């Protein structure tokens, strides 16, 4: 919750609590009925797999070696001080290091987010490993202990894992059959499972029986799914309209206390709108091709390369020239006026990035507390001419793989996540990460205060550059 909203709540003498009622709550079942229902769910998944024996969700083609820069004290990352009972283990890495625990492994995908202090690794064989903070069970390893060494996630099926997403305290995992599993913080129903427990410590299948899912995404306390037919589904906390269901779920529980009705199961987002000063027009339901989640907002692209955004609107992160929250997907008119379609989007805590079909990069929102707030998409001239292929967003900025280099941009207190060295920890303008000169980075992902990079190691030159890097060997907490 923003400071602005907190002060407003206090001024009104209202306490804003969460998670007292649940939207779409299934009927109460006896233990026997619940077991039968669970078996039925599993049968549905098996039938779906049998009906689509030739259908597989495809993950990335690239494979590489994992590099790390930034904070490695997972319990401290993104916080001002260590929580009680946690050991202060780990140090800040101010330049890229070879990640020792996985130096002999072939990794296909690394996943974290600007809200997360944990990371998911997907191996060449489709196995999922987890690392980092685990106080909400987000690592899926049956306990709440942090992991400094990547550890296999418990409860997953034999099917290959092809993608994943991380929130502040929860994780989603996507199989090649289009099924989704989740673990971690479920206080606001962001795991989308039938369990009423606030914490899910092993991966459980999300309660969903529709068309196969092809992409998953997480905000801080909400989740988004995209199916193969272009329909989005959301569940979790709706406080700022981030679920796109035309409500923030707010209700008065009693005098002086406001709560939010969370959405427990995946619910389709069906209404998309275009707004002008005088009217709101409901648009034909688009076929969504891609999306990205920030802390409390989402930006999506349809098959005509139109962009939509919804959720928390502070600092202009939705690109509508106003800071209002949007409770349902709203067309970003700027790109229509420019007559340029959007081919890729990325979201940070309070900003969004869009790349149009000509390769131009646009920023809307506020990248750091010291920076300017762009109320609508503005081109980033310093990135003109760069071919950005992978973008990771952290709490202070972004890291992007581009051509044969890596671009970083951000200012503020840094733990080394920009990889610029100990003397220059941040940059107010986009610049190259000099330590990676000559190395082709396939993919980038950022957490709240750390960055993982997946580097190509096919040529002898690639291997020589990687071999010259310092190796990070974690101290086990």
Automatic annotation (TrEMBL):
| Composition skew (Acidic residues), residue ranges | 24-50
Q: Report the residue ranges that make up the RCC1-like domain in this protein.
A: 107-453
Spans of the RCC repeats are 126-177, 178-229, 230-304, 305-358, 404-457
The record's annotation in Pfam families points to: WD40_RLD
Q: Name one GO molecular function term.
A: small GTPase binding
Q: Which SUPFAM superfamilies match?
A: RCC1/BLIP-II
* Listed PANTHER family: PROTEIN RCC2
- For this entry, the protein name equals RCC1-like domain-containing protein
Q: Which organism is it from?
A: Acyrthosiphon pisum
């Amino acid at each position: 919750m923003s400071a602005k909203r907190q002060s407003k709540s206090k001024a009104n003498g209202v306490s804003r609590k969460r998670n007292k009622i649940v939207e779409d709550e299934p009927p109460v079942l006896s233990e026997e009925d619940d077991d039968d229902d669970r078996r039925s769910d599993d049968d549905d998944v098996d039938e779906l797999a049998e009906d689509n024996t030739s259908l597989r969700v495809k993950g990335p083609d690239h494979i590489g070696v994992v590099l790390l820069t930034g904070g490695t004290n997972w319990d401290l990352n993104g916080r001002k001080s260590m929580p009680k009972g946690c050991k202060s283990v780990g140090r800040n890495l101010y330049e890229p290091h070879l990640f020792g625990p996985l130096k002999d492994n072939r990794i296909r995908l690394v996943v974290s987010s600007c809200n997360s202090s944990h990371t998911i690794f997907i191996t060449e064989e489709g196995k999922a490993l987890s690392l980092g903070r685990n106080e909400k069970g987000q690592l899926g390893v049956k306990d709440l202990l942090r992991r400094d060494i990547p550890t296999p996630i418990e409860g997953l099926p034999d099917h290959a894992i092809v993608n994943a997403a991380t929130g502040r305290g929860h994780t989603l995992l996507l199989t090649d059959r289009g099924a989704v599993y989740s673990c971690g913080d479920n206080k606001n129903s962001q795991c989308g499972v039938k369990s009423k427990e606030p914490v899910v410590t092993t991966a459980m299948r999300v309660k969903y029986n529709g068309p196969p899912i092809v992409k998953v995404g997480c905000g801080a306390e909400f989740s988004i799914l995209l199916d193969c037919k272009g329909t989005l589904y959301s569940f979790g906390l709706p406080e700022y309209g981030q679920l796109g269901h035309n409500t923030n779920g707010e209700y008065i529980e009693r005098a002086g206390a406001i709560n939010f009705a969370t959405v427990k199961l995946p619910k389709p987002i069906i209404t998309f709108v275009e707004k002008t000063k005088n009217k709101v027009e409901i648009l034909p339901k688009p076929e969504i091709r891609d999306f990205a989640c920030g802390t409390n907002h989402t930006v999506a692209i349809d098959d005509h390369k139109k962009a939509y955004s919804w959720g928390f609107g502070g600092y202009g992160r939705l690109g509508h020239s106003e800071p209002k929250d949007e409770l349902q997907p709203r067309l970003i008119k700027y790109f229509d006026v420019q007559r340029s379609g959007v081919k890729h989007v990325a979201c940070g805590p309070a900003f969004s990035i869009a790349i149009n079909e000509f390769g131009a990069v646009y920023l809307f929102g506020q990248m750091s507390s010291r920076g300017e707030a762009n109320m609508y998409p503005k081109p980033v001239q310093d990135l003109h001419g760069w071919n950005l292929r992978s973008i990771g967003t952290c709490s202070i900025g972004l890291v992007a793989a581009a051509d044969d280099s890596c671009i970083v941009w951000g200012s503020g207190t840094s733990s080394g996540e920009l990889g610029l060295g100990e003397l220059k920890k941040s940059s107010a303008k986009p610049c190259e990460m000099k330590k990676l000169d000559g190395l082709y980075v396939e993919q980038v992902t950022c957490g709240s205060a750390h960055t993982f990079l997946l580097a190509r190691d096919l040529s002898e030159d690639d291997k020589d550059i990687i071999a010259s890097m310092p190796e990070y060997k974690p101290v086990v907490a």
